[in-house]
Amino acid sequence: MSATDPDPPPDFVTISCDNCAQLGASFDSSTGNFTWVPASGLGVGDYFATFTATDQLLPQLTDTKSVTVHVDKPTRPPSLAQIKDWTVDDETLLTFKANATDPNIPPATLTFSLGPDAPLGASISLDGVFYWTPTEAQSGIYRFTVTVSNGALTDSKTVTITVIEVEQPPVLTVPGPQTVDVGTLLIFTVSAMNPDVDDLATLSASSLPSGASFDPDLGSFVWTPENSQGPGVYTVTFRAVEPGPNGFSDTKTVTITVEQAASS
Fold first, then answer.
1. 16 φψ region: left (φ > 0), alpha (ψ -120 to 50), beta (else)
2. Does the N-terminal peptide bond of residue 231 adopt cis geometry, omega within 30 degrees of 0?
């Protein structure tokens, strides 16, 4: 607040606050600064602070002005409920609902989001539904924040999710039934795909006919049947075993029919 005296020469003018004590406000007459923090129980509405400027001449002259201060209800932050810790197997969908309330009247619309520390592939809808299917490569412990916002203020909670690696058997791929003439070279390849990214399946073959060979590193079967081996039907068993503690495996067979070469 400031005041001036129009008389020449201007007289010294003092300013006072007439109702600061009633408001619970303070006023520094030397600087003209008015300070007021409305009490928490004060209702919404317009409040008036009245100031009077007084000169030092006799008779003293005064001027009084009022300032209107509108007090509004403060915006309060939303409250996000504590989120429990979760444990989930890899490659399994985890979903849960985050719950929050807004204390303002009327309550604001709340929106949810994940912090930048959330695991890759995780998401949360605007209404607080969390979704995540951890991949085979994401076993471990993840701690990250979930945040709710009412458009002005936020609240956050930390959630911990433990992802358990579940061993899965390898998947062996073999060709269909084979037919070969005696004296003719037969070559085919088998392969194994291991869902466990940190394990490599080992290939093997059993019940190999005489003269046949199998390279477990390349997965290649090679055989040239001799005259004495045809006609006939042979069944070769192939197996893929992963080196994990459970030793999961997959076994498949290939039927080979050996025929006599057609006479020329």
1. beta
2. yes
DSSP state of 108: P
On whether the pTM is more than 0.70, the answer is no
Q: Please provide residue 199's backbone torsions phi and psi, each rounded to the nearest 5 degrees.
A: -120, 145
Strand partners, 54: 14, 62
Among the listed residues 162, 161, 247, the one whose alpha carbon sits nearest the alpha carbon of residue 196: 247
pLDDT, one tens digit per residue, over 132-159 is: 999 988 999 999 999 999 999 999 999 9
Are 236 and 252 found together in one domain? yes
Domain count, the chain: 3
Answer with the one of 102, 130, 164 that is the final residue of a domain: 164
Does position 183 have pLDDT exceeding 60, yes or no? yes
193: domain CATH number is: 2.60.40.10
Alpha helices (H) in 83-172, listed in sequence order: none
For residue 61, what are the CA distances in angstroms to 1, 64, 72, 154?
18, 10, 36, 53
